[in-house]
Amino acid sequence: MKPDSIRRYNVIGSRRISNYWWAIIIGSGGLGFLFTGLSSYLQFNLLPIIHAEKIIFFPQGLVMSFYGILGIFFSLYLGLTILFSVGEGFNEFNKELGIIRIFRWGFPGKNRRIDLSYSIDDVKAIRVELKDGINPKRTIYLCIKGQRQIPLTRVGQPLTLEEIEMQAAELAQFLQKDLLLN
Q1: Tens digit of pLDDT for each residue in 118-146?
Q2: Which residues form the signal peptide?
Q3: Structural domain of residue 117, as residue ranges?
Q4: Helix (H) or strand (E) holding 53
Q5: Could you tell me the pTM of the whole model?
Q6: Residues 93-125 pLDDT 10s
Q7: Of the candidates 121, 126, 63, which has an alpha carbon nearest to the alpha carbon of residue 97?
Q8: Which residues contact 99 (CB under 8 A, 6 or more apart)?
Q9: Is residue 3 assigned to a domain?
Q10: CA–CA distance, 38 with 126 (Å, rounded to integer)
């Protein structure tokens, strides 16, 4: 096997610093809201930094408790995506065997392992989608016969223009397929 006949790109998935950050911030905020709502119901402060004497339970305390519970649940959801490494995996291009393998981890259950394999002959082109603005989108797609387009880049933290151009050009050259810009 030639060392240059296989290319493998790892995908980070949900174990990004931003997800850890948001899980902690949203969880802390949710606990603060929940304790404030409960303090207004019980008519004494559960935490010394919360002063809920002037908050009446209905409707403010009830709404704060509701938002607190939602924040805690969302924080737990983010924590579970981090724990289970949802979205983590790799893209492997093997010219020797003539296959492309795309692997990702999902949530526990029957679809925990997402493992897709395609023949290199089924690939029509590599397509790059660039969209700038407040929410930039920079994605490399694998265009398969039958009008399927499979995203190859990670979600959430877009690559720089230079990185995405280099990776797409390198991949198109490696697979000897057309590179489409959109």
Answers
A1: 999 999 999 999 888 888 888 999 999 98
A2: none
A3: 89-181
A4: none
A5: 0.83
A6: 999 999 999 999 999 999 999 999 999 999 999
A7: 121
A8: 117, 118, 119, 120
A9: no
A10: 55
